[in-house]
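Reviewers asked in the last cycle whether our approach scales beyond single polypeptides. To address this, we selected a multi-component target totalling 139 residues and predicted its structure end to end. The input consisted of the following lines:
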Amino acid sequence: MVNGRAAGAAAPEIGAGSSSGVGVGRDQETKGKGGARGRGSRKASRPRFAFQTKSENDVLDDGYRWRKYGQKAVKNSAFPRSYYRCTHHTCNVKKQVQRLAKDTSIVVTTYEGVHNHPCEKLMEALNPILRQLQFLSQL
DNA sequence: CGTCTTTGACCGGCGC
DNA sequence: GCGCCGGTCAAAGACG
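The resulting structure, written as structure tokens, was:
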């Protein structure tokens, strides 16, 4: 995607502009992936914070780098849900973004976990971000 | 060159 | 017992 990660940059269209017809003939090299992962080995509980942000942009630079690792369609919503993860080494924070079927301009961002690394940019980005935190729901 | 994105396929847990 | 869903990962390609 050529989307600029600038917090102030406003993308006119959502999701549009991509469709990079990947369809690459993926190899069938040992597909034994997934499960083998020590799943659920987390001792510390993961605080889940759901934030409703009004933005057309999916990935807003909130001070941290997010790497999209999956996209699945949900039944409740006719729109696909996007899964993001902090690209940090010591940061196991996960972000879940879903658009509202009624208002595509509203996205439900669910943060899972807490960052363990400093972020100066967050300070500056916090100002505008705080403004977007109109509705804060704590699960 | 490095980095990020996208898609498909797979697995685990849970429900009935 | 089986099926279904959600969730995750890997690789390749593309872009700055």
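Chain A is about 10% helix and 30% strand. We regard this as preliminary and will revisit it once experimental data from Aim 1 are available.
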